[in-house]
Amino acid sequence: MKTLADRAAQEIFELHVFFGEWLRPSAKAFDLGRLEQALDPDFRLIGPDGGIRDRAAVIGWIGAARGSRGPDFAIDVSGIRPVWQSAEAILLEYVEAQYGQGRTTRRLSTALLCLAPAAPCGVVWRHLQETWLQAAG
């Protein structure tokens, strides 16, 4: 049986694989439902620019961005570590790196994930805050 930390780490990896495939031009068929199932109804994202998006805004933004990055686009996550945990929720920190068009951006992310047996990995994203690790430009 997987622990909450295992489920949350798997979800972080799987959703970022989804983002990489979704945002690259690809012949593969992907369903935006993967993202919809993984986000809590009260999900909120605070982006590295300080902008705040709710669940509907994030789903709309990602949906509209399908295939918008170059063929060399890739996302990598590393350094996943638990910060806090209860029986039903876990706060994790990780570094997300995005590569494409000859540049790399990195952000430190803090994500709150909650148990949800029907979700793809058994957890849903409740809150995500990202901070640039260097200037975006």
Structure write-up:
The protein has 137 residues and is of the alpha+beta class. The chain has one domain (4-132): Nuclear Transport Factor 2, Chain: A, CATH 3.10.450. Helix content is 26%, strand content 42%. The protein has three helices and six strands; from the N terminus they run ααββαββββ. It has helices at 4-23, 33-38, 55-64; strands at residues 39-46, 52-54, 74-85, 89-100, 103-115, 123-132. Strands 2-1-6-5-4-3 form a six-stranded mixed beta sheet. The chain is globular and about 40 Å long. The N and C termini lie far apart (43 Å). The model has no long low-confidence stretch (mean pLDDT 94).
List keywords for this structure.
six-stranded mixed beta sheet; alpha+beta; 137 residues; Nuclear Transport Factor 2, Chain: A
| Helical content class | 25-40%
Low-confidence blocks of residues: none
Number of helices: 3
SSE order, one letter for each helix or strand: HHEEHEEEE
Strand content: 35-45%
What name does CATH use for the topology? Nuclear Transport Factor 2, Chain: A
User: For the record, what CATH class applies?
Assistant: Alpha Beta
In angstroms, what separates the terminal alpha carbons?
43 Å
* Mean pLDDT figure: 94
| Strand order, largest beta sheet | 2-1-6-5-4-3
Label the overall shape.
globular
Total number of distinct structural domains: 1
Largest sheet: 6 strands, mixed
The Rg value, from CA coordinates, equals 14 Å
CATH architecture: Roll
Helical/strand content category = alpha+beta
Tally of DSSP β-strands: 6
